[in-house]
Each structure stands twice: as C-alpha cells, then as structure tokens.
Write a structure and sequence with these properties.
single chain
Length: about 550
C-alpha cells in the first residue's frame, strides 16, 4: 500500500467552491485560499445561528503509544462512512503544528484513504492561522518588555512577568533564555522562555471565542504579571487588546477543506491536549452542527486528557453536547500496556493484549462518568491477528459495550460502515452529558476529583509552589474557573513510565498557571514541557522537495 502522501497526491480534488456548495454555502459566504481551501466568513456563521443543531460525536482513545492510535484517521473515516450511508457529515479537526510535523510524529491529517486534503498545505502553513497566533502572542511579549523598559504604569515587576514568547517549532535550546542583554538601550536583562505556539493562551482563546467581541474581551483579561506591590496586571492595562485581536481577524474564521472522498472537513485551531484543551475551535464545531446531520470531532491524546477537558471546559462553556464517544483502541497499544516493548508491538501476542485490557476498561469507566454511551472502534493494523482482535471484542461484549473493527486506513469510508451504523443507532438526540465537577468546588477539590475519578490516583500532593498558587488564585477571585490539568499523555498517571492501569499512585501538582483570558487554570503535574525538543533523528530528515515543487516524506 502506498504511503499517505502518495495516496493524497493520487486523489483528484474538487474545487473547494463545490464542497462549499454541498453545504449550501454561497460564494459570498467564503474566502478562497486557492482552489483547494477556503475560509468561511464570520457573517456566514452568524446568519445560521438560529438553525437547529445536529448531532455531535466525540472521538477519543485509550492511552496511546508514542506513534498515536489513529484518532484523526478514525474521525475522518467515520465521517466518510456516514456520508456513504446517505447521511450528511462533517469532520472537524485541529490544525497540525510544525513542531510535531518535523519532530517525531510527522503529519496530522489522517492516514491512508482517510485523510483531509491537501495534506501538504494543511500540514505546513495552511491559511496562516498558526502564524497569526504566533504574531499576536509575540506582540504581547514585545509590548510587555517595552512597558517594563519605559517604566510605564502600572509598573510591572519583571520578576513576576509570566508572558514568554512562542515559535511553532520544537527547539529545546529556547526553553530557558535570558533576554535584554547588551546594555540599557536593549531593555532590562531577565530570565524568560519560549513555548511552542500551540501551547499559547492565544491559541486556547481563539478556539473558545465565538465572535470578535468575545475574542477581544478574553484577550483583554490575560494575566501578564504583577506590580511591585503585588497587584495583577492584565493585558487591557497595556491597551493593546484591540491590536492583538486585529492580528487574529482572519484566524478566527473556520477553514474548509475536503477529505479523500470529497466530503467536507473543517480544520481550525490547534491547542495541544496535554497542556491546553486539545480541541478544534468551538466556532468550527458549531458551524458544522448547522451545516450537516452529524459532526465528528476529536479530542487530543487519551480520554483522560483531551476528552475530559472537552466535557469539563469546552462543552460546559459553549453548550456543545457530545451524545456518544467513539473510543479508539488498538492491538498495539494494548500490547504495550500489557508489558510488550514498543519495538516488539508488531509481533503477535494475545496474552499481552489481554494484560493491557485494564487500560481500556478504565477509559470506558471514565466515559460512563459523563453520562454518555461509548462505542469502541478497533483500529485494525495489517499486522494484527484475528486472535488478538477477538480478545478485545470478547472483553467489550462482556462489558455490554458495542465494538467495531475499523479499516478506514486501507478502505476509506467502506472500512467504517459498521461503525457508522452503530453510531446512527446509538445517537438519540435527547441525551445530555453531565460535567465531572461543579465550578463551585474549590480548585483543590476540582484537582482531586479529576485525579481520583479520571486518572485513578490515590491522592494529590501540592508542592510549596502549588500551595502558594492556590492562595493566589483565591486572592484573585478565580476559584470558580474550571481546571485544565497539564499531564503526560503516556500514562493515566503523571508518571509516563506507569502504563496500563496504575494504582496507588500520587499526583503531584508543581504549580498552577493562570490562564485568565482563556477562562481556566492549568495545574502542572509531572515534567511537562511547553517547548518540546527534536528527537535524535527528526522527521525533518525525511522531508524533501523536488525541482517541480513536489514535497515528499511528510508521512
């Protein structure tokens, strides 16, 4: 079978105007970015506001291996399958980041015959949204240092300034830096850092705001640091909320592209799930719910990260209502959780699959906690054996959970017809999810609830810094905000080495980052890095371009 990029290049793309017409979007509703992608104007979103919502399906996964378990591929394939069954369906996804693209994972547009296209453009610069987020974030950073340099009021104490700079690339050398060197005219020397663009609070805000007014209001509330007498300084105090929002004018508009089968896809926004909410923009999902019968969306990493945040942050704020969770499971991930090394995952081992089932079981329990039904999508790989797959099916049957073998990578929508029918039968249109915790609970209590109920922790410990942050949050009157726990994606715990379903572990909160603009708090656990590094042999070594401008090696 050809690799992803060869399959993508073999597809004859429709003009994006045709895809828009299929959704009853007129030429006045869209802004073309060439022949294969466009943005949908905010006015087009507004005029469909009163239209009845369709059905929202959330795709999540068990705890993944380093290569991922194919959530994006399954989400795209499910949408293809629904369309093949005569249902109008849109898949809504996050935009890829250049960091993982050139680092370890490669592309993030699905795989095989279940991709969003044009894959090279979506994976690279796309419509410039990442660049806009980067520019907006760094405008704030430059203004902060200018404000400090000129000693403007309110007098920001540089030792408390929390706003760094961002770049959309993995670069470990930028994690901790010193800026302002070279003398008085170059600013005040101080410690600072870079984060990857997807981790920016601007990205989180962009994906939660639903119009320009809300975007500007959220940006104005970003906490930048404190004065010398310990009073908070917000972005609005620097009077640049208008300029920052202006840089995001086009980035707020959802992007329309197509799948390998010519069906519509909205790809917009890209926060990571281990350090942010891990979901595409609310605007794109809400628009999809007005334009089709079914919207398929995904939440990053395992259910314990992206999906918990989807329910407790994104859906709670926006009013979105996922009615069913499709939980992606793979033989290889269960073998990994069952004790098999990553290098041996292609070797048959039904016993290792069985030993890894407690991880699947915990994620199914977590889904039930939110009051929505689950369907397990077994993402079949060519090296999976019948016996290994049967272990998973027997387990789900014993739990009264429906499962479906999915082969969209090899077969496109045809490989998801059974899953698609099961989704149609499962969605009632009457079910309403329930959040895990009340916003009235204390921040400490919220962290304990998520850690115990979702991760399975025995207890939560707070470092001295974490305890100080709890007091600061209370002093600032921010205790009613939801929490967005930053944690490793490699384990249900905060220790990446603890696989399967760890027990009797303690979650350690090292500090709590205040994302006042985005409207949530980020308890930081484990050794979470906001600026990833490149591996010894990065994916960039395999990417090339020929004399005709054809890109190869993306996946």
């Amino acid at each position: 079978m050809n690799n992803d990029i060869k399959i993508a290049k073999s597809m004859k793309l429709k003009n994006i105007s045709e895809v828009a017409e299929r959704l009853n979007l007129s030429k006045e509703d869209i802004e073309l970015y060439g022949n294969n992608k466009c943005k949908i104007k905010i006015q087009a979103v507004k005029k469909r506001k009163e239209k009845k919502n369709s059905k929202l399906i959330l795709v999540s996964a068990i705890t993944p291996t380093p290569a991922g378990e194919g959530k994006t591929t399954i989400a795209i394939g499910l949408s293809l399958g629904l369309n093949k069954l005569g249902k109008s369906s849109i898949v809504t996804l996050r935009e890829p980041s250049l960091g993982p693209l050139f680092g370890r994972k490669g592309g993030a547009t699905g795989g095989g015959y279940a991709q969003v296209l044009p894959m090279e453009e979506i994976n690279m610069h796309f419509t410039g949204d990442m660049r806009a987020v980067e520019s907006a974030h760094n405008l704030i950073a430059a203004t902060v240092d200018n404000h400090i340099h000129h000693r403007k009021d309110p007098r920001l104490d540089p030792r408390t300034t929390t706003w760094c700079r961002v770049i959309d690339m993995n670069d470990r050398s930028l994690r901790d830096i010193i800026i302002g060197l070279g003398g008085r005219i170059h600013g005040i020397p101080r410690e600072s850092s870079f984060q990857i663009t997807a981790s920016s609070e601007i990205m989180a805000i962009l994906c939660l705001a639903e119009n320009y007014s809300e975007l500007k209001a959220m940006i104005s509330n970003i906490l930048l640091g404190f004065t010398y007498d310990q009073k908070p300084v917000y972005l609005k105090d620097l009077k640049i909320e208008g300029a920052t929002t202006a840089l995001l004018k086009d980035a707020l508009k959802p992007n329309l592209v197509q799948t390998t089968e010519g069906t519509p896809a909205l790809v917009h926004g890209g926060p990571f799930a281990n350090i942010a909410q891990g979901t595409c923009s609310v605007l794109s999902m809400k628009l999809g719910l007005k334009l089709s019968e079914y919207v398929i969306t995904e939440a990053g990493f395992g259910f314990d990260l992206g999906a918990e945040k989807f329910f407790d942050i994104v859906a709670r704020k926006s009013g979105l209502n996922p009615e069913t969770v499709v939980l992606v499971a793979t033989v290889r991930a269960l073998k990994n959780h069952g004790g098999k090394e990553v290098k041996d995952l292609e070797k048959p081992d039904s016993k290792a699959v069985k030993n890894g089932l407690p991880n699947l079981e915990k994620h199914l329990e977590n889904i039930k906690t939110f009051g929505v039904p689950a369907i397990v999508a077994i993402n079949k790989f060519t090296h999976d054996t019948k016996e290994e797959i049967e272990v998973i099916k027997e387990f789900t049957n014993s739990k009264g959970i429906e499962s479906s073998i999915v082969e969209v990578h090899q077969k496109g929508g045809e490989g998801a017809l059974d899953l698609s029918q099961k989704v149609i039968d499962k969605v009632s249109g009457k079910r309403k999810f329930k959040p895990l915790y009340s916003l009235k609970e204390s921040i400490k209590k919220k962290i304990e609830i998520v850690s115990r109920e979702i991760y399975g922790a025995a207890a939560v410990e707070f470092t001295k810094e974490g305890q100080a942050d709890l007091k600061l949050i209370k002093k600032l009157g921010l205790e009613t905000l939801p929490i967005c726990i930053a944690k490793t994606q490699k384990s249900l715990s905060d220790d990446p080495k603890l696989l399967c379903r760890p027990e009797d572990f303690i979650v350690t909160v090292r500090g709590i980052k205040i994302s006042r603009g985005a409207g949530f708090l980020i308890p930081v656990t484990g050794n979470i890095l906001l600026m990833p590094g490149l591996p010894k042999n990065p994916a960039a070594e395999n990417i090339d371009i020929d004399a005709e401008g054809n890109i190869t090696g993306l996946f």
